[in-house]
Amino acid sequence: MLLGRFSVHPHKTTRSIPQMGMCPIFEDMMRLYRCLSFLLILFFASCAAPQYIPEKKFDRAALVQDYDLMTDILKAKHPSLYWYTPADSMQWYMDAYRAQIQDSMTEKDFIWKIMSPLLHQVHCGHTTAAMSKGLTRHLQGKRYGSFPFYVKVWGDTVVVTGAQQPDSVIRYGTVIHAINDVPVTEIIRRCFEHLPEDGYAQNLNYIRLSSNFPYYYENIIGPSNAYTLTYSNGSAFQQRYSVNAFVPVKDTGVAVKAKTAVKKPAPPRTTNQRYRSLTIDSTGKYAYMAIHTFNRGNLSPFIRHSFRTLRKQKIPHLIIDIRNNRGGKIRLSTLFTKFISDTPFRVADTVYANKNTLKPYTRHFKGRWLNNIQLFFTTHKKKDGLYHMGFFNRRLYKPKKKNHYNGKVYVLTGGPTFSAATLFANTVKGQQHVILAGEETGGGWHGNSGVMLPQVTLPNTRSRFTVPLFRVVQYNHVPKTGTGILPDWPIPPSYQALLKREDHKVKMVTDSILRSTPYNRMNASPSRKKGN
User: Fold this and answer.
1) Per-residue pLDDT reduced to its tens digit, 322-360
2) How many CA atoms lie within 13 A of 91 on its CB side?
3) Contact of 449 with 196, CB cutoff 8 Å
4) 342 neighbors 432 (Cβ within 8 angstroms)
5) 174, 160 contact by CB (below 8 A)
6) Fewer CB in a 10 Å sphere around the end CB: N or C, the chain?
7) What are phi and psi of 458, to 5 degrees?
8) DSSP category for residue 345
9) Is residue 173 within 8 Å of residue 232, measured between CB atoms?
10) Which helix (H) or strand (E) holds 380?
11) Whole-prediction pTM value?
């Protein structure tokens, strides 16, 4: 979980060293450093990087070496490797996928056929496989997948929401029941076996499939030259239809120039608006606050200013939308929580790592020395032999007195609600003035793994995977059943709302507020029970 930074995906900023007040010797050293840096940049820029070959095949010995390194690192460093899959079962999976490694596999095949299904068995949303930098650059800007339609997926329902190529039969709102005579329920199940999740909270994976179904279908199910669809248009009557696969057409130099010439300038937009926003309804009855990350967007002053505005304007209802918030910095999540929570709280009940060093695998980790330093200085070994980060479970945070929000709060949650966002949702859930509405979070309710999320690069294929170094058990945690945080007011996706292209969850909440009939807690999800 992206608690210490919140990256699934990271922008870094650097600041120049202030020049005023430096001694002359240090100034000369800085000039020399700049000159050397400039020369190095010119040198590396002149060296053409070798072209990535996606069809390159690796022999079995190289693939097994990468695989064994991955499993050794997981066993040594992952704090929750056996949380949902017992050690003997995990070893069985490791042996089984090792046996499936074939000679002459491409990097792509190795990731999707070996790495991804194994990492799925960890049931950790932050233990993920990733392509090498070469393959990532190679695929950048290309359209993925041969399946010609984009879809919205939930439960056992698949509805068309777009197309990669024009089609007169399959249009927006068409319900797909089977592809090439394979029921969509089976396709979803097979895709989920290759995708990570916290415990058994699959809500995030429905969002993943909905975001780029052609990509996942091609890599997991496999490409096809044509597709036979069993479909309907919102009725019980089903029909069959065959359609050719989508084949991307490469732009010629002339086409690219023409496309560039007619390209319209993007409308001006405040950069931070993509990360957070606050709007107050013209009726003055409610405000809508979207927080899409706890990582960027100049968030701290935004939070303070927003709650000051809400107090001054005496807004009685607040909708907080964290459906797409994949987490971020604990510091910002905690600050936000202090403006909503009515009671003192801690970040977590337990935060610990297996070791306080990345050794003997340090050289394979990104940011290796910085991670080692952080592990060494922020953890303390206890009698259980584990290295605890006690700061998070010792410090008690008190609610803000100034500009604390005392009105009715509706927190919208969904599958992408993850990591630091689940820390917030877990803390405020069950408080008298707060209602969680929407869908189950993708982040685990009992806890998950994160804080530090270094990436490992395998030496032969250069494929990568992420290893969370700390186990986090939620503050005042519930039993470990593998669910995400359950909403008090479940609002599942709606086919009719999709046809109208409306935000069903926001509409349900705003209609309730405007009718002055707040949601009744009698129908809420089961209350929190202290667990192990």
Assistant:
1) 999 998 898 999 999 999 999 999 999 999 999 999 999
2) 3
3) no
4) yes
5) yes
6) C
7) -80, 140
8) B
9) no
10) strand 380-381
11) 0.82
